From TrEMBL:
Organism, scientific name: Albibacterium profundi
Pfam families: Transglut_core2
Protein name as catalogued: Transglutaminase-like domain-containing protein
PANTHER family: F-BOX ONLY PROTEIN 21, SI:DKEY-261L7.2
Entry similarity comment: Belongs to the UPF0162 family.
Residue ranges annotated for the Protein SirB1 N-terminal domain, each copy included: 101-257
Amino acid sequence: MREEEIDSLIRLLDDPDNIVFNHVEAKLLSLGESAIEPLETAWEQSFDPLQQQRIEDIVHKIQFSQILSSLELWAISGSFDLLEGLIIVHKYQYPDGDEQKIINQIEDIKREVWLQMHYSMTPVEKIRLFNNVFYNIEGFSGNIRNYNDPQNSYIGQVLDTRKGNPVLLSCIYSIVAQKLDMPVYGVNLPKHFILAYTDNYQTNYEENEVLFYINAFNKGQVLGKHDVLSFLQQLKLPGKKEFYLPCSNISIIERVLANLLAYYKENSSPKARDIQRMRETLASIQIDRNGL
């Protein structure tokens, strides 16, 4: 569709007739990303609140459709890159966010650790070095004061502020660690996400393959299996393997989305519907994969 035709459609967005509006909206949505720039230009030039609101809604629908498609493709393709999944979630809130900036920030942290690391170190020695760089030099810490703030779940914000919740701190920690050939993976522990340092890179973990656990929210505190089981007992939960063995990247993104959903629901935000749709997208792929 030519630019003039798009502009003609946009000019009709202030029409009070819902039939006209629904037709125009459908045409603009069908154009996808190519409609965003002219829509944003029209918003800047408009003095009509109705037209501005309709433009905002259409732009959001186009961008959200792209987010769902990206998330679905990431999951179907194997969800191997956790960072990619986190960037997709980040783009939901910050569609114009700089993806390369996030990647560069991760690489900068990796480089800082790598410069000090000797590969003859034991796993515990590596973690002590890693913790010193991650918390003391890079300045990461748990956002205790604003624990439930949704910004704690968007990786770009956590990298900028150096504050996050247990899941995002663990994600950044494990992504950097894996780039340094340290087998550190997320553990979907109820009420508190943690990490496991394993002794191999297999996907089907056995209990004796976890050397120790790491609490990324508490300055990288090293924990034993007995600590994790004791925590489960305090919660009156059974010691299921899924609670103390490494989990999939899809499970991690589902946990990130669950935190966002809880916040947006509590605050009656319309974003709750979007987050729920993202969760349902992942859930449907999990069901297909399990043959249920």
